[in-house]
Input
Amino acid sequence: MNESIQYVKGIGPKKAEKLNRLGIYSIRDLLYYFPRQFEDRSIIKKIAQLENDEKVTVKAIITNIETYTVKRGMTITRVDVKDDTGFAKLIFFNREYIKNTFRVGDSILAFGKVKKNGGFIELNSCEVEYLSNTPKNIGKMFPVYPLSYGITNKDISNNIRNVFENKDIKIPEYLPKEILEKYRLCGIEYAIKNIHFPQNKEALKIALYRLIFEELLILQLGLFMYRSGSENEKGIIFKKDNRLDDILESLPFRLTKAQSRALDEIIDDMCSEKVMNRLVQGDVGSGKTVVALLALSECVFNGYQGAMMAPTEILAKQHYESFMETFKDIGITVEILTGSTSKKQKEIILEKVKNGEIDILIGTHALIEDNVEFKNIGLVITDEQHRFGVRQRGKLSSKGNPDILVMTATPIPRTLALILYGDLDISIIDELPPGRMPIETIAVEKKKREKVYNTLVRKEVEKGRQVYIVCPLVEESDVLDITSATETEEEIKNEFFPDLRVGLLHGKMKASEKENIMNDFKNHKLDILVSTTVIEVGVNVPNSTLMIIENAERFGLAQLHQLRGRVGRGKYQSYCILIYNSKSEVCRKRMEIMEDTNDGFKISEKDLEIRGPGEFFGTMQHGVPELKIANLFKHMKILKVVQKEARIIIGEDPNLEFKEHKGLKKEIELKFKNKIDEDITMN
Ligand code: ADP
Ligand code: MG
Output
């Protein structure tokens, strides 16, 4: 199975290279290259019953064949057929050889798309074959593969057929016998054979069920296995501390009802003996940070250390500063650890964390490096959790047995959250702090760009407000007409606003440079900040009221919403201008959604609708293997069964070390492995 595809009959180096580009390297990859869909060619209709636009099979006799040239290099071959109900014409472009393959009087099966043309019935994009007892491609469920790089459907089919004809190749069964029997799943060999060459509809269904079950089981087991701790493990029992009220008093605002509710739920969890595993979901700007701060205080008041992990340095820094502000008078010590902390500084911090001199450690993924040792960690918070990989998450919390809190602005349907985080509890902050005016969003075509700059930007700056301009890329690309941040900054500074203070921020800058620029913007030493999406997550500058997003068509809806959340954080009316450069219907629709709603949950749903669950799932949580055949929405029933089973398996054998689980474990490691590199290089 792990041999190169060149081992398969008929695949030479050239073909192998093409297949490689589809991600097919081993025989195993080939067998697991599943059809995108199945064309039902099994329904045979009488000619008189045919309906316009349907794709269908007819059984008929050839009455006439003719080829004529339409123009140079283009011929049409017309095959007239009849059955006992009527006549039809099969139309072929540039396939003259048809004339030599079939004769008048032959009985055939033809599959094609029906077009009713006046009184005539045509069948287009046709496939024909002789009527026989064992039809090859017609009269059955026909697999349609995702294709490109000059690989045809037939290529894939033939290659796979050759694999099956080679008796040396055995597909090992890795599902335990007990599970196969319990859920009446077919064997792997039957499943793979029938997904590529379905005997009939029933066989295809049985094969699909097995493969979907298997894929979901591997996903779920992997997530359980790499997750920290087990669900019913005993954790620290905190005691509610009155000093929390003092902090609440000292805040410049009162918590919203939703924030208070979330905080109560968190404190209750912390005070129970169960390990907390809670997700806080709240739209951008709903005030999750202060809830985190309060939970961390509770932890420290009980004599434990807390940690908070943010996906970017800017964000970590921002949390650090706002925590310092609150904690400086209370005697809680806070430190920050990121990729750019100097080696010497890092050593000092690590030492202090280890002997308990630091109460709260904030940082990026530098926090989960192995040499961070806490004296007594009590609570771990991850902000914008979906940005971290599955394995990273487990790592930080495995340093002790702390309570876990994750915070996200990406609304995740509960069922999906269950897969990702297991049996976690969810708090929802569904209310924005009072006095916020909803952000007004306007989408404009690129040709109005200049006007936007000259009027809106100018106006806001004159009122003393600040402006973000977000671009998709850092440097100008020759291939695509995408406005790059660097170029835009030059243009803004030199052409539009030589009199204003303009700064540039992007991911390729040094951390210290980023920090300086961010500080300048925060302290109103800049009027306009041109940036890439590095400012997407959590940055908080309440005086900024206008966000302009260039090439908005290049961003996902959820991302646009996140970006837009950088404005509207203060008491002023804020605006988001989406400049788009596309005439497509889909683009227009997406822009309209952004104009119409400020509700992150709704946007997330729409995004899901437009992009489909596969892609959506990937952007929500890094490090999850891609689903090839299962669909988290369509196959919810199977998923529920799988989850129950996965829980039983993990309960008995947390690291899948039993003999009968060896095969499964190997599969899981294989599927999750490919994603590890990406996890490590994120940010
Ligand atoms: P997010 O949920 O997106 O992380 P933040 O925690 O950054 O949001 O909060 C956004 C802004 O709202 C911050 O400036 C914060 O100080 C402010 N804020 C938070 N809670 C309240 C509240 N209850 N009343 C007023 N302002 C608040
Ligand atoms: Mg936040």
The two ends are 36 Å apart (CA to CA).
